[in-house]
Every structure is written in structure tokens, then in C-alpha cells.
Amino acid sequence: MKRLIHLIHHVELPPVWLALFAALAWLQARLFPMEVTGRAGDVIGTGLVGAGLAVMGWAALQFLLARTSLIPRMRPDTLVTTGLYRFSRNPIYLADVAILLGLILIWDALPSLILVPLFVKVIEARFIRHEETLLRAHFGPAFDAYCARVRRWL
């Protein structure tokens, strides 16, 4: 049982949650197909997925260049506040949201739009709050000052 809990702790990562929510949207699109957004939905959705992937890559690169951990639940060595992190404390999670929204549009899974705010709440509850606790404990007033000038999402 202890090994299972350890495995779940290491497998439960934001991309797994993104895949789960995307799978739900895809399933909804297959069970209840809709032709609502047409070509515009495909173009906008593809743009959102592409932008999400680009933001995710750029934000991850900033962590790598700062030589700090990008893995949730691990204590970072550096507080990254430059680049995309000047605009959002969580650009990678914001990118996840853009990707989910883009896939929903591409698949014409408009009833699945309800999944987007649910995904945000899951990510906040499962990852962001814990990460903020770690950052506050490690960086103290520097993290508080960062939070005062940069919003959690946008």
C-alpha cells in the first residue's frame, strides 16, 4: 500500500490531470457530437493549443536557465520572477488551461467548456496552494512581495 501511495504521489502531475480532462472532453465530443464551431473553432483551438505549448516551453526554459526545479511538490532553489513570470505566477498552468480550451474548440465539445473552470480549481487545490506554501516558507518576504505585484493566473 505504501508503494502505491508513493507511485500515485509521483504520477499525479499536472499533465496527467490535463490528459484526464482532455479525455473527458474528447469522450463528450464522441458521445454527443456537435458541429458548432466549424473551421473557426479549429483555427482558434489550434492557436490556443500552439500558444499553450509555446508558453509552456518558454516558462519551463526559464526554470531550467535558473537551475531550479520545475517539478511540482519539489522545493525550488530559485524564485523565478522574470520573463513570463512577471505577468503570471503560474504561466505553465495557464498554458494547460489554454491547451484544454483549444482542444475543446477543435473537438466541438462545447458542453465540456464547464471542464475549464473545474480544471482550474483542481490545479489550484492539488498543486498551486502547496507550491505557494513551499515558496513562502523558503523565500518568505521575497515571495510575498512577488505575490503582491503578480497575480496567480493573469
Automatic annotation (TrEMBL):
GO terms for biological process: methylation. InterPro entries: Phopholipid_MeTrfase. This is Protein-S-isoprenylcysteine O-methyltransferase Ste14. Keywords: Membrane, Methyltransferase, Transferase, Transmembrane, Transmembrane helix. GO terms for molecular function: methyltransferase activity. It is found in: Endomembrane system. Gene3D superfamilies: 1.20.120.1630. The lineage of its organism: Bacteria, Pseudomonadati, Pseudomonadota, Alphaproteobacteria, Rhodobacterales. The keyword Transmembrane applies. GO terms for cellular component: endomembrane system. The chain crosses the membrane at residues 12-31, 43-65, 93-120. Signal peptide: none annotated. Its main location: membrane. It comes from the Bacteria. It is a multi-pass membrane protein.
